[in-house]
Design goal:
The complex is a heterodimer of chains A (about 325) and B (about 260).
Chain A lengths: L3 H12 L3 H5 L2 E10 L2 E11 L4 E5 L6 H8 L7 E6 L7 H4 L2 E4 L11 H9 L8 H7 L15 H13 L5 E5 L7 H16 L3 E6 L2 H7 L2 E6 L2 E6 L1 H6 L4 E6 L4 H6 L3 E7 L2 E6 L2 H11 L4 E6 L3 H11 L1
Parallel strand pairs in A: 3-7, 3-8, 5-6, 6-7
Antiparallel strand pairs in A: 1-2, 1-4, 8-9, 10-12, 10-13, 11-12
Chain B lengths: L14 H21 L1 H19 L6 H33 L1 H7 L4 H29 L7 H28 L5 H15 L11 H6 L4 H12 L8 H29 L1
Helix pairs in contact in B: 1-5, 2-3, 2-5, 3-5, 3-6, 3-7, 3-9, 5-6, 6-9, 6-10, 9-10
């Protein structure tokens, strides 16, 4: 791991006026990653500017964890380049500036929370103070408990604490609130917002739309290794419009599809779900044509629908 | 300008820093091993239990001394195979190792700490066995012999750590305990850990010198003057050879897995 050429390289890089890229915290440039037959990432490009909170949103298998692993230097791309702060993510210096929370199957169960934090803090030249870590990750009364004896939410908070140990400028969170209860989830969101307010850059991956919506200033929707679209949460939601009508009706699917402004008709067990722009007109027509219509519900499209629509189109 | 914050590092990890990380890793490795009852009880327990069974019933005889040395070998081999083989295998499968590798922790520190932890266990087993030999076995152990046996245990750590490492990278985590037992038990038996190999069938006696455990046992027995004829140097050479080959194989397999990842 000779660092001299790498440092030289990045010094030249910024001196040569690529100011734009040297300001970026992270950059994946046309990255592809192949595992045997599976194309985990396909010509994927992505940039992360300082202070942003960005969510990579996508179903399982979209390539989100692969992207995180590349950014952490755990794997190398099949093609394309990965840069953190303008440098190779595998360098020691780079690693001291990042904190990561990965989906770890099991942590050594017999070690206590305090001991795990102690161990990780030793890796970094200027770690965050222990009381600070305990406070942010909300581990106050469970420091002396063995990891194996923690609840799911407490375990996640411990992993979150480990990500903070190095006082990182860039924090990567891979599905951070999986298996957390609602209270813990909201607690973590709160902490992420505070970290971002301190000027740290946060990249999180998630398949919870609410999480992306709630935390991210920018959302990148991914599926099958490609970027589907990118924008603020509001922009993503706006890209699917119309409202959702659910009812039990004798009317046929073909007829419903033919009604004006209807974009989608689906069977949902005993009921039918119709998505339409002008919901009131469609309902009026349906009520006239079918007097036995029952169980009527009208709602705004769930983010689930918007998200599914985006990822199944591609 | 962001580059002003990036000082030119002299070396990836400075000596002091590395030493501190290593010390912490070794400490927590030992803590882990001690608190994992399944590991500590079986690795510590078996040699002790066997000595209480067979050493006691052979008290006052040379056999009590024989078993002290051979069970010390057993402790060394099992501490390494289970501590490193299963330890690393499980941590890899759990994703824990990945989290540590994503951090600035130097890889070498992790490996050395694991070896040091196993070595600590092996030395404790040896010490307890010597104590048992003197009390329950009612034999004697001279300080010189104790020192030489300690040296043998330390020598034995190397090839069996290498073996543990090879198992950890080559074998799927679920099969690791099974494979380790499959290798370790017959190997120990055929190498004379339970009884001198002159008591074993002829074909087994001919086969034994292939096994690294045989050579370790011979070295250990040599410290108390009970080895088979043939120089200690030969055994050291075989163990050194095994260490190189096993480490090499583990390195190759690991590199290939990294390249594919």
């Amino acid at each position: 791991m000779s660092t001299f050429p790498a440092v030289f390289g990045s010094a030249i890089d910024s001196a040569a006026g690529s100011r734009g890229s040297s300001k970026l915290v992270a950059r994946l440039h046309s990255v592809s990653k192949r595992y045997g037959d599976v194309q985990a990432l396909d010509d994927f490009s992505f940039q992360l500017a300082p202070g942003e909170v960005v969510a990579l949103l996508g179903p399982n298998g979209a390539g989100k964890t692969t992207a995180v692993r590349l950014l952490l230097g755990l794997i190398a791309p099949s093609s394309g380049s990965v840069r953190i702060l303008g440098r190779d993510p595998r360098e020691f210096e780079t690693r001291t500036r990042i904190g990561a929370m990965l989906q770890v199957g099991r942590v050594p169960e017999v070690l206590r929370v305090r001991e795990l934090i102690d161990m990780f803090r030793t890796y970094y030249p200027s770690p965050m103070s222990v009381p600070e870590i305990i406070r942010i990750a909300r581990l106050k009364d469970i420091e002396d408990r063995e990891y194996g004896k923690l609840s799911g939410g407490q375990k996640q908070r411990t992993l979150f604490a480990l990500a903070l140990c190095g006082n990182p400028g860039l924090i990567l969170l891979d599905e951070p609130t999986v298996s957390m209860d609602i209270e813990s989830r909201r607690g973590l969101w709160e902490q992420v917002r505070l970290l971002a307010a301190e000027g740290r850059t946060v990249l999180l991956t998630t398949h919870y739309l609410e999480e992306a919506d709630s935390l991210a200033s920018r959302v990148v929707v991914m599926n099958k290794g490609k970027m589907i679209c990118e924008g603020t949460p509001a922009e993503i939601r706006r890209s699917i419009s119309g409202r959702r009508i659910r009812c039990v009706t004798r009317l046929g699917l073909d007829f419903l599809e033919g009604l004006p402004t209807v974009t989608q008709v689906k069977q949902d067990r005993e009921a039918v779900v119709v998505t339409a722009e002008a919901a009131e007109d469609v309902v009026r027509e349906m009520l006239v044509c079918d007097r036995s219509l029952s169980g009527l519900e009208i709602s705004s499209p769930a983010l689930e629908d918007a998200f599914l629509a985006l990822t199944t189109q591609a | 300008m962001s580059t002003s914050a990036i000082a030119i590092p002299s070396r990836p990890v400075e000596g002091n820093h590395f030493a501190r990380i290593l010390a912490k890793e070794v400490r927590y490795e030992c803590v882990k091993m001690l608190r994992t009852r399944a590991f500590s009880l079986s690795v510590l327990g078996f040699p002790i239990m066997f000595y209480l069974l067979f050493g006691a019933s052979n008290r006052h005889t040379e056999f009590a001394r024989y078993l002290m040395a051979s069970y010390a070998c057993m402790g060394t081999v099992s501490a390494c195979l289970f501590g490193i083989g299963m330890g690393i295998s499980m941590e890899r499968a759990m994703g824990w190792l990945e989290l540590k590798l994503a951090s600035p922790m130097p890889r070498v520190a992790y490996l050395v700490a694991k070896i040091a932890g196993s070595a600590a266990f092996a030395l404790v087993i040896q010490a307890v066995l010597m104590l048992l030999a003197v009390t329950v076995g009612q034999t004697h152990v001279t300080p010189m012999e104790a020192l030489r046996l300690t040296g043998t245990v330390l020598v034995g750590i190397l090839p069996f750590s290498a073996m543990g490492l090879l198992i950890a990278v080559a074998v799927p985590a679920n099969s690791a305990p099974g494979i380790i037992n499959l290798i370790y038990l017959p190997m120990s038996f055929a190498s004379g850990f339970w009884m001198p190999i002159t008591y074993l069938p002829h074909w087994l006696q001919k086969f034994a010198p292939v096994l690294p455990t045989y050579h370790l046992a011979q070295l250990a027995l040599g410290t108390i003057g009970m080895a088979q004829p043939g120089g200690g140097a030969q055994h050291l050479q075989v163990l050194a050879g095994y260490t190189l080959v096993l480490f090499g194989a583990a390195w190759m397999i690991f590199s290939r897995q990294e390249a594919k990842a």
